[in-house]
Fold this protein.
Amino acid sequence: MTIRAIIKTSNLVQLGLVLLLGVCFFGLGRELREVNGLLRNFYRIDALFSELQANADDKYRLALDYVSAPSARGLKDWQNLILAERGIVARPPTSFLAGDERSLQRIADSLDLHTEGRELLQFCLDQNELLSRLTEVAVMRARGLYPDEQGGFTVEGDPQPRQALKWISDSKLALIPGKILNAGRQLRAHRYQDFLAHMSVQRHDVWWTLGFAVGGLILLALNVAAIMFTLHKRVVRPLALVGRYAEEVAAGDDPPPLRLKYGDELAGMFDSLQKMKSVLLSRIQELKAAESAAHASRQQAIRARSQALASLQIARKASTVQEDFLRRISHEIRTPMNAIIGMSYLCLQTRLSPNQSKYLSQINKAGSTLLDMFNRILDFASVDEGSLRPERTLFPLGHFLELLRRSVAAEASEKKLSLTLNAAPGLPAYLLGDERHLEEVLRILLDNAVQYTSEGGVELSVAPVRKTQGKARLRFCVVDSGPGISSENQAKLFEPFVPGDMSMTRSGSGLGLGLALARHLVGLMGGVIEVDSAPGRGSRLSFELDFDLPPEEETRAPVIATGDSEDANADGGHGGERALVLVVDDNEINRQIARELLEQAGLAVAVAEDGSRAVECVRRQSVALVLMDVQMPVMDGMEATRRIREMGHSPSELPILAMTAHTDSGSRMDGRDVGMNDYLTKPVNPAALYAALEEWLPGGLAHNPMREAERPEENADGATPPAAPPSPPLHPAINAKAGLATVGGNEKLYNELLVRFVEHYGQSATQLRDLLEHGDYRGAARLAHTVKGVAANLGVEQITELTRQMEDCLPDVPPAENLLQGFETAMAEALEQIRLLQKHNGLSATAGDMRLADEHRHALLNLLAELPQRMETDWGGVESALEAFIPLVEGTPYAEELSKVLAAVNDFNPADMAGHAELLRRHLSGDADEDRLLH
């Protein structure tokens, strides 16, 4: 018999026994219910007779007492007793039937009695009713009331208590209670005998039912014991034998085959396991042989890996040396370049002869060309190292194109070339994209077109290709009337260090990095440069790029106030005195250039040769702004800035602008960490310097020499260039001007603080309602106070006003419902605007179903692997590197996870950053494994 059959049979037997027990317990319950009904009926009959007897005695006594000595109390007691018997009023608590408001007749009708018993009970009720009627006649006669024709007592006469007393005696009312008592005793005796007889029958049935139940329980216990014994014999013992057999196999032995006694399912399963054991042993022998062969190959792989690691170390060392060389040469070259460009610019502002002006203009132009060439070398090196990342900013397209046209207008005018800007209808006013790299690409193409064209003109055209919801694809095209490029030269046009046409004269020479860099930058932005040219008919270079279109709200981004503000005065905002700007640089030429540029803007200037003297100057004088070189002897700019901040000068009170030759984001982050507001790249561009002063100088820059020297220009064909769109109004939910003033005009820091406001107080409306619902008014007051302070610093003015009103009533009384609803609405509007600003500044990305390119995934995995080490030495570099990946992961499943990593870095929270980075790394690694399986 198989184990399955044994278990099935046992289950059926147990089911039958359980059904038997159920029937027995059901019968037992029914018998007990009948016994309970008999007892209840018996006791109700007894209570009824006790009530009849007590009422008969009381009625007779009360009637006799009233007739003998009439009193209002005696009459009232007798009337209540009569009314209670008839169910009109409630019975007193001492009654045998207390709580039952029915009449005695209705109670008697509800009892279960045989015919003889019911006749006796009815006799007692009739006697009781006769007694009630006779006592009523006697009482009424004693009161002077006599019966009328309808049976009522409405006929009035003289009270006759003596005749009433005599009538009670003559009517023999005293015998009626005795008759009721005798009849009740007789009925009780009959009912008691019936109850005993019925209980004798019920007891016999109960004993039989209990016997069957006990028998069923015994059989059930025997069945359980039997099944336990069978399972021990058929399952437990065989499993113990199999366990010992498995231990021998695990120890490396090969025991003889084991045969189980019973041919059931367990024996069949064990036979299959033994066959599998034989197969596994043979496979193990094969694997051992393969392992021996692999061991020899592994030794070869180890040697090859060692050689590869050595080569990698050499390559990394070479890359480090190259990067260090570029950083050093950048600093060394930019210092003399600053002198050349700056001094020539200052000389051009003085009285000069025509030849002197011409010579100095050539010197200034050559210096700018050399600087541009050097910048392209550095950018090309960044592309070659793979460290260049796309950027994402909001910029006005019209203003962007106009500045680009002006940058090459002078050179085109010198060569008497027409320079045309053709902006097609339907172009968006604002774009979200890589403005810096787009400007560099178009500058390269326009510079090349002007350089290689001797007559005719150059045209830059921009046209929309397609426009969808939130996206726009634009086509940029640069056309010239130059000599054209042959098909042979087109093949090598974008190779580095190869000019566009090697057959050209010296005027067409150069490093050959421009077009190579342009191709890399366009590829970085997701496009491809196309060339359409032939000798004798000019050249056309074009490419298409995708841009995001900001929502209407996002185009209303905060605009930092400049020197044109009404609050600015003629002397830089220092109450009639010229604002004092401190220039800190160890190079005398750099100091002189900066002094001249600042004095041209009407500012007072103080100079210091190193950081220690700068700290002392700030301690002794009232300085409005500091231009701080970074690399100096004695004390560098970083340490000097740190000490100035420790003296209590906040970034909003005393802006410090770094002047550095290092343009990498890590250097910028280092400056921000010690308290610098912004940075200027050396050689300092006068326009960039004056723009920074307009932004950071308290009160603004009233006198901007560059702006006053500008005059409206026209294109070569006489057309007026497209003007930049006007600045849109600020969003009503946020006063960005007030918020920027709080953080010293640092727009990036302001945006980061807005992001933190969303993270820490975005749920404050819900939290406030929860606190109020639980009665925690003090907690609600603390939360409102905290949100008010943060919102006031960030310029979220509506939130500030609403929380101030809440503070006026809390914690004494809760705020009104309309105030809470207004707070929730204002918070929702503020959060929506902050999220738009966050997306515009590249601090967050939205998740979607798009696929991340393999090269970007590998690069991001490499960055995540380096995070623990880099965050200890280069926190600013980590932030810049992560920000570069934000536009790459936009619309992919990794967007929100990377945004969380970046937010933790911005909050300087290593624990959260490590946790989010590990989750992102697992997500990226898991998808990579899935791709390998699919392919």
Summary: Residues 500-510, 553-575, 711-731 have pLDDT under 50 and may be disordered. The CA atoms of residues 24 and 824 lie 68 Å apart. The longest strand covers residues 457-468. The chain has 28 helices and 14 strands.
